[in-house]
Each structure stands twice: as C-alpha cells, then as structure tokens.
Amino acid sequence: MHPPPPAAAMDFSQNSLFGYMEDLQELTIIERPVRRSLKTPEEIERLTVDEDLSDIERAVYLLSAGQDIQGTSVIANLPFLMRQNPTETLRRILPKVREVLHVAGVEMQLTAAVSFLTILQEESVSIHTYAHSFLQVILLHLEHRDAGVSNAWLETLLSVIEVLPKETLRHEILNPLVSKAQLSQTVQSRLVSCKILGKLTNKFDALAIKREILPLVKSLCQDVEYEVRSCMCRQLENIAQGIGTELTKSVVLPELIELSRDEGSSVRLAAFETLVNLLDIFDTDDRSQTILPLVKSFCEKSFKADESILISLSFHLGKLCHGLYGIFTPDQHLRFLEFYKKLCTLGLQQENGHNENQIPPQILEQEKKYISVRKNCAYNFPAMIVFVDPKNFHMDLYSTFFCLCHDPEVPVRYTIAICFYEVSKLLNSGVYLIHKELITLLQDESLEVLDALIDHLPEILELMSTGGESSVQENKLSSLPDLIPALTAAEQRAAASLKWRTHEKLLQKYACLPHVISSDQIYYRFLQRMFTIMMTNNVLPVQKAASRTLCVFLRYNRKQEQRHEVIQKLIEQLGQGKSYWNRLRFLDTCEFIIEIFSKSFFCKYFFLPAIELTHDPVANVRMKLCYLLPKVKSTLKIPADKHLLQQLEMCVRKLLCQEKDKDVLATVKRTVLELDRMEMSMDAEQLEKEKQQNDGRPMSDKTFEKKRRDTKTPTTLPKNIPISVPGPTSGTQSTSKEIKKSKLIRSQSFNNQAFHAKYGNLDKCAGKSSTAAYTPSVSGLTKTSVISLTDDSFRTRNATSAPSSFSSNTPLPSTSRGTGNSGDPKSGGSKDTQPRKAALKSRKSNP
C-alpha cells in the first residue's frame, strides 16, 4: 500500500487518485473474508437452542439435528457429561455419538478419540463398562482413511490395553489380530497390528506370547512391504522385554540379524537401533560374535548410505561404546575411534564461504544433516572419554574436543557447552587441559552457548580451581589468567542483550567466585559492577540477582576497610538514595543480608538505616519495609538488643499514628499483629549474668559453665545460642509476665481500633526520654528502658548531601550488643572497628 502524503502536500493529480483507489480496493479485499464469516439470520436461527433444555437433552438434540460444529462441541464435552450423569450419557448420548462418527469429518473424529481417552483416564466408569461401551467404537475407527485420525484412535486403544483384563484382550483384540495381520489386509491394517502386538506382549506370560503372538510377529517381520517390516522391527524391543532372555536369543535375535541385511534402508536402521537398545540383554559371546560384526558392517556402509543413517548412528554411539566396552580388539578400538573423529568433522571440509542463496537446496539439506551428526557427536563426547580412558584424553580426543568447541554452527557448540561439566568431571586431575576451551565458550558470540555453559559454571570453576597437580589454590588459579576478563565480558554481553533471564542466571552463578578467585580480584573487578547493575538496570530480577551476589561477595571479604566501604555505599547510595527505586533495592539487600549474614552483623550495620525508611515520603517504600519488619525483629536478642527493640516499637507506633496512606496503614496493622505473635530470642548467657549481677554476686566463667551444664541445653551448642522462651523461668519470670500482660493490653487496643491519646504525639514522648514508655509494645514488654531519642539514628536524612563514594574513616551507623560482642561469627571479619554504643537510660514504671 502507498503511504498517504501529508495534508499540506496533498496531490490531486490523476496518478495519485488512481493510487488511492488501489489502496481502497486492497482494503476491500482484506475486509471481504470478515464479512463472509458473519452468520446470516437464518444460520443464527438454526444454531439457536432452547435454553430450558437440560445438558443431556441439549446434547441429544445437537447430535440429532445440529450442525457439525455443534456435534463436535458435544463430543468434546462428553467427559463432563460422563462425570455429571454417566447413566444417561451412556444410554442416550453414546448411541448418537456412534451414529454421527460413521459420517463424521476429521475434526470430529480427532475430538472423539481425545474424549474417549479422557474418560478412560478420569475413570468415570468401571473398566468393564468402558470396554462394553467404548471399545468397539475405538476398534471400528482404527483403519480410518486419514492417517492422523487412525493414529489418534490407535493411541487411545494402546492406553486402553494397559488397563483391560486378559480375557477381554484375548477375545476383543488378540483374536481379531490373526486376520488383521494377514497379507490380504491393507498396509494400514498391518501397521496397526504391529503396534498392537508390541503392546500386548506386556499383558501375557511368556508361554502365551510364544504360542499366540510370536507367529504373528515372524509373519510381519517378513512382510512384503518395507514399511510393515520396519514398524514390526521397532516393536521387537518391547517383545524381547516380555518374553525374556532365552526366547529373545532364539527368536528375536535371528529376526534382527536378517532385518539388518534388508534391502530397505529404513528397515536396516530400525534393526540397528533395536540391537543397540537390546545390548544389555545379550551376553558377551553374543555381543562379540554376532552384534559386533553387524555394527562394524553398519559403520563401514554408513557413509555410502543416506545421511539419516549417519544421524542415527552418531546419536547411538554412546550406547554402543558402553554396551561393547571391553569387547573391541586394539585394532577395532582404534578404528571405531577414528570413525567417531571423522563424524565430528563431517561437512566441515566442504565449506567454501559461498552465500547460502547460491547453494543448491539439496546441498543445504545435506549440510543440515551433517550439522545434526556433529551435534550428536558432541552429545556423546563424555561417553567417548570413558571409551578411550581419561588418561589418554590429550593424545586421542583433545583435538576433537577443540574442533567441537570451535565448530562454526551454534547447535554443536551449544551441545558441547552442555556436556562441558561432565567432561570436566571425567578428566578430574587433567581438567587443566580444557582451560582454554572454557574461556572460548565463555567468550562465544552466541548467548545460547553461554546460557548452556553457565548452568554448571560454579561446579566447573570449582573443578578448575581444585584439579591439577598443584595443591595450592593460588597456584592453580594462576593457570587461568584469562578467566576474569572472560567472565566480565560474558556479563557485559548478556547485559547488552534482551535475554535478561540469561543475565540473571549469570549473576546468580557469580556467587561462586569467592571460592575461586581472591577477594581483591572480586572487589576491584566485580563488586562495583554489581553496584552499577543494582542502580541502573531496568529489570527487577536482574537487580535482585546482583544484590544477592554482592552480599555474598561482602560475606567472604576479609578486609575490614573494603567491607566498610561497601556497607557505606549500600547505605548512602541505596538506602539514602534520591530514587525511591534504589531505596526499594536497599530493602531487598537487607533481606539478603539477614539470610546470609549473622543477626549481629545486620543489627550492627543495617538495622537503623532500615527502620529509618519508616519516614520515607514514598508509600511503596514504607509498605515494603512493613513486610520486612518481622524479619528485622527476628534478628534481635533480648536483653542485649532491648534498645533496638524500643526504636523498632517507636517506628511502628509512628506509622500507626501518622500514616495517611490507607494501603500502608492496613499493611502496618497486619504486620503488628504478626510481630505480636513472634517469640523473642533470648541470650541465655547474658540473662544468667544479669541475674547474678542483680543478686549482687559476681559470676565467674566456671560458675556459668556449671549453670549451663545443669540446664537441658546440649553442651555442644554455642553459649550465645538464641533460645525461645515460651514460659517463665527463674531469670525471666517477671519479663514473661510483662509479655503476657502487654499482649493482653495490645489485643484490647487493636480490638477497639483506637490508641490512647498520649501516644498520638510522638514528639512529646520523644522529649521526655527519661520517662518510661508504657505503650502497645511490639516486643511484648510493658516495662521498657527507653533510649535517648537524641541519637542520630532518628535524624532527618538529607539525600543531597550523600557523596557518591566514601572514605574508610567515615563512621558507620552501627549498634552494639549489650554483651559487647562486635564480631560477626558468620563473616569472619576482624574486630578492629569499635561499634558506636547507644546510651541507655533505664527506669522502672508502674503498670
């Protein structure tokens, strides 16, 4: 169509008008099929059915007087009618279905085959009733003139055979097969008989198979039509499994040998594939004296035959190597290996750089088959390593592996990338031999190849770092100088593409790098890239993957200065960033930190920056924080983190009192109820020490050890293990009573949906820091020690003052446990940095 000119330059010349007329004619032609598809009033009248009819009556009416599309709809709905009213459906509808199927078209026949199978699978009726009502209909349409319809009914029948009793199978199916398998019947009838015989062998004993089924099998294996011989040959595997080893050797093997010399290439191919699948059944003598010569002959003639035989042969090479292992003579072993190498480069010698448009179609089709052969060779490469022994890999197979990794076709490289992990495991200490090929596949121009390789990238890199002769990890990694550039280039290539799932997967797999390369290499080459992705990428799963990987990098970083710099960037560039999107990602990062790090680490560095987001101007940020609060509370321990718990309570109360967004407020209320149900973790050691101090007696380490041994806590657990306290103990009896009393008061407060007036003005409460707060408590404590609210954790955040990078001397917003334990037991970091201690003022208030 011609594009219309602009209005300002409208041309009313004769040629232009003719052009517009042609456009209008094209539009008319496009609209004609739409008009023809509309129904006339008469057609609509014929398709209209009385709405007062029941489902059964409507189905009977449509099958009797409706159009084909309506009858097809009824048959598609047959499983539902059987579930709803099986008796009436069998009595009134099924006879109509039988009548309609005699003259039905292809679509209705296919629909009926699927519906009959669905009824069988749903077990709407008993097997006896199903066989009586449906089996004859299925058998009647097996030889439909349309091949697709015949195959659909055959698939239904094969499923029915699985559940029918032996007597029914014998009388209804096996006995008629004697006549259906005769040469006087059609080719379609004999093909159906072959598939039914293959299924029946699993339902009868060996004696019945030998007497009633094997004579028919031999007859069909010698049929005059190659299609029938090929079809029967492919069923010999099922028959062999049903009759056992002895009958297989005496009856099936001779037939397979004869069929392997058949004049039809499809018959020889079927015989070869069946022999390969039955290798485990035959003993060593049969393999060496009968099967091996057949395989040798088949391989020698394969290059002179059709390429489809080469495709099948290359696909089954792995099974052949496994089944014939130990039978080859050294000369045969070498010939078979050379045959495999030849297949791996098949078609590469003929490439001449011509344009595909200049190559004849038959040559293009041949090249596609050669690509399939090389792809199958790549698939079987791990089996060939076992065949030659991994010790001989460098001499016998390395050059072939190199060719497969550098193959010009993506499917071949994709397949070898999938197998790379298996190859690495098999090589074990010789894995260093394929370092360069790993770099090659990481730098592959196709993202499909990269996606296949990174599925097992952590395992591959671990093998690369632990394999080889050296026992020192740093020395092993020095043999991979190009690994880091290859990894960074792969990530950048994935980021530049539209395949964000590949990018996400790659970032997730990068979490293994701390086990492979040094923390300095990660810090200078990967960590800043994770920050960039978190702040600039537009795909949320990719950002989350980068966030989690960055947390893993931080977890394994041993240098305190670098750790502090990363923490500062997380807090200031994300938690205090200008974009609300960055602040949302900060909360995601906090969730990952809670998962990966210790509770004390989160409380020390991220607790206060996280709960400060209760003042965020964006409702989505406040709502996301509300969902995170239960996990935040789970990091606290009592009594060490009592001051943090009080600040958490203040933030929640402020949200309850001042939140104006109805969705956020509803989320806050649900979150508070969840927080109320949570049990606080107790620091057993700290509680025991406070008890001793309250009694006026100093407690030595030996005294505490004796007290700890007297408890029921296992001695193998660490001293600071979080212990959930469901009931009162000698050290926490008063606290537990206060928890129960606070929960009761808080429940009454939520039921009334109102809070006391003195809690509405938090600024007033904040100004009286020396007064005990007696409020609905998140922790369940009614008598709490109130932290001085002049602490800088509640200062107003100025987003514009946050620098893009931080000096290591900048203090971190941290808190400290009451026990003074600033070390992170999970992170293994040093204790050089002294945490900022919050000033606590405690006083008791009467309830």
TrEMBL record:
It comes from the Eukaryota. Residues 685-741, 796-847 are annotated as: Disordered. This is Serine/threonine-protein phosphatase 4 regulatory subunit 4. Residues 838-847 have a biased composition (Basic residues). Putative regulatory subunit of serine/threonine-protein phosphatase 4. HEAT repeats lie at residues 213-250, 252-290. Residues 727-736, 796-824 have a biased composition (Polar residues). It comes from Balaenoptera musculus (Blue whale). Serine/threonine-protein phosphatase 4 (PP4) occurs in different assemblies of the catalytic and one or more regulatory subunits. Component of the PP4 complex PPP4C-PPP4R4. Keywords: Coiled coil, Cytoplasm, Phosphoprotein, Repeat. One of its GO terms (cellular component) is cytosol. GO terms for molecular function: protein phosphatase regulator activity. Residues 685-712 have a biased composition (Basic and acidic residues). It is found in: Cytoplasm. InterPro entries: ARM-like, ARM-type_fold, HEAT_type_2, PPP4R4.
